[in-house]
Amino acid sequence: MSKKLVLMDHDGAVDDFLSTVLLMTMENVQPLGVIVTPADCYIEPAISATRKILDLMGCSDVPVAESTVRGVNPFPVLFRRDSFAVDHFPILNEKENIDTILVSEPGQSFMVRVLKSAPEPVTLIVTGPLTTVATALDIAPDIESKIQEIVWMGGALNVPGNVSKDMEPGQDMSAEWNAYWDPFAIERVWQTQIPIVLCSLDISNNVPLTSEFSRKLASQRKYPISDFAGQCYALAISQDYYFWDVLATSYLAHPEFYQLKEWETVVITKGVSKGRIKLETGGRKIMAMEQVDRDSFYNYILQQWAR
User: Fold this and answer.
1) Where are the beta strands (DSSP E) in the chain?
2) What is the tens place of the pLDDT at every residue in 87-118?
């Protein structure tokens, strides 16, 4: 059975790094590269940490690219600084040199090149904003036919968003951060015929990081990947934290864990609701993850990180 060709686009937060780890454990996937979009991170440590993680995973042949796109509404500094912490984890810095290659071209151009040269359509797993994808489509509209589907962690359909008024005055809390960073990028992607599988807050709100999961992970810290994941989650356990990106990425290996539902949607790009993905009859059809077998999901993550 041939492997699924996958190109990853993440934005350098804790769960993005863990999604990178998870993707590299999947036997049914051939990763074509990892692009880092400068959104929920500081880009230099996020690039550095990503390359070190690929070294740790024994995947130094997977190239990394730095996207140079810019969003409309920046993530808070408080969110972005975790990229510095992860880049300095001891487990990532035992070697003096990094083997994983950082390509010289911008991430959006790298995306175009990878898609054009792929022998068959490629699945994009996007765990940050859609800006790099939208920019690549503007550069080369013909790559649309080379994208099998986009699995995207973003948006909130039937639940409140997480762009709170205390951080973004004037917003009505209907938007999710990956969508809010660049609503126009979503609108651009929505104009295509590319199949979208959405992992929104509607499902991720039901899959929290729990103390029980952290204890189970700690019990297997003899494994380097479990040790790394435990350190990552220790940064986050003091807040309400969910398996946003990891939940989206797991879909690539085990779609049978999930129930999907089709929705018709439009994207709000201006005003107090900018970044909202609104349900509207006649709108752009997408598939959204509606439910997940949580026990199977948690067990799968622990299994994959026991290495």
Assistant:
1) 4-10, 29-36, 64-66, 122-126, 147-153, 196-199, 258-267, 277-279, 284-292
2) 999 999 999 999 999 999 999 999 999 999 99
